[in-house]
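Q: Two folds, back to back.
A: First:
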Amino acid sequence: MQNRHQSGRATGSLVLLILVLGVAGGWNYHRNLQFEKATEGLRPYQAYSVEDLESLRSAYAGELNGVRADLDSAKRNRARGVRDVGSIAGNVEQFQRTTRASSAIRMAAANVAEREDQIKELERELDMRSRFGEGLDRHFKRLTTI
């Protein structure tokens, strides 16, 4: 009779422990889900696999080197203005050269910025996947991560 009484108390404690763990896990899951939604934002690369994201990132990094070289070349080819060429036609021609050079620099700088933004977006997606996981692992991390 004594063993049966102690067994009943142990079962009650075990049920209470399971209940507390379930409530704490549910609360933790909800808290991590809200945090993930707040930091997630727009994810244009959500459907891509990790391997595709890494190869895309390395391709953009290779392109970035070429685009930076174009920017450096455009800066080197910048026309140095002379104060007064002496004729209106000469001044107009100098203005056109300067305008073309400035446009080339702006376009190259925009290409550099665009590639850098793409790389940052890819790295953000990879970081989010490594932090929160994927599939069932993602749900388990939401449940257990404090």
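A: Second:
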Amino acid sequence: MSAKLLIASGKKTEAIKLLDSLRRESEPSASIFFELAKLHYEAKDFNQTESNLKSAIRLQPDNIWIRQFEVSFSKDLGRYDEAINVLKHLVILQPKNDQYYDQIVQLQIKKNDIDVALVTLEEKEKNIGWSEKNVLKKAEILDNADRLGDAISMINTLVLKFPREKKYLRLISNMLHSYDKVGEAEPYLKKILEIDPNDIDAKLGMILLSNGKLDKDSYLTTLAPLMSNPDVPIDMKIKELIPHVQQHAATGDSLLGRQLIDLCDKLVIAHPNEAKSHAIYGDVLKNNEETTAAIRQYEKTLTLNNKNFVVWEQLMYCLNDVENYDQLLRTATDAIDYFPNQAIAYFFSAKSLIAKNDFKKATELLDEATLISAGNPNVESRVLTARAEIAFKKQEWSKAMELSNKALQVSKGKNADAMELKGDIYKETNDLKNAVVSWNKAKELGGNAARLAKKSETQKNN
């Protein structure tokens, strides 16, 4: 109880010492080993975590809580086979718990064992019973494996079971579209109209088909029901959205951006507790230059799942764009704790400290970023720009210009921040013509448009 109180009050080091004393002095106890394993895990001491966990399992091999922790620990270390074996043991202990089957399937998909995952779903159905969710999961796996015919056959079992239900017909239509087999969707759209002659989306689909105008942009208007349907697996929806999100990122098409925002809004309403829905919404908002809204979506993503570094990275880029350096520093520090081998997190942490004029600590972090990046040109160019910014703040103009030019050289002329900094250096050295030229080039490279426009306008007025 004393150890539990220490843990509750945040004194985890003292709790570990106390539990270690208990472990040495008392009879072997699975509870003590388990508590130690959890504490060492929080401290990221994985060797001690594993040692204590094994001792706890040896004493109580059928303890549900201990074995569930073992699953999480094995998954975090990428030991998927071990996690699957433990989950299979848990299935024996609790054969009606469908979450164990779902976790096994998830891991088998990660290992690309598609056929094995389908067998696991068959076992789940045999032991727990038939479910719509199980059929949709099979269809999703088949779809992601590019086995379109098998996926459609699977969903057709739901069409036969629920002949008056439109959503399954619509799902097949959407899947055909994603494989550029738009013409084959016609019979499914007709069946929807037989069920509901006033279905606007099916009507639109038929009109577009008859006019031969059902291209990918037009088809976005028919995706709303799919995104709004909480019964359709989210991965199917993400697969539909990704090509359009990529197109939006490449072109900056504002109309496409608005359509995607509307669809993602429906997606997060249908799947409020799915990290993927908020992550793709964040990407769309970021690409649409709605940075503050994107930040909220990335933050929500991390509350649901903080194990995808790409989301951390996107959030840090957004916070840097809006110059929220206090939150950027907190976010970058957390990212380093979770992902100590990601150099870009050290860069963003240094960037925050430069804004606070803590050049010594910032330089140390930039040194770490350089060491970890191992010559990655993107990180190297950004680090050089940060070093140039430190020189700029110290009014070391020549050094700042030299580092900025080097950053541009490493990035093959694509580092917008380095180009913007060159403009700032020109301004401070009274070369106003080259300052404006550099800022305009930075804008063309995708730099912060609002900030650059303000600089150019201020210079023009002066």
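Q: And?
A: The two ends are 70 Å apart (CA to CA).
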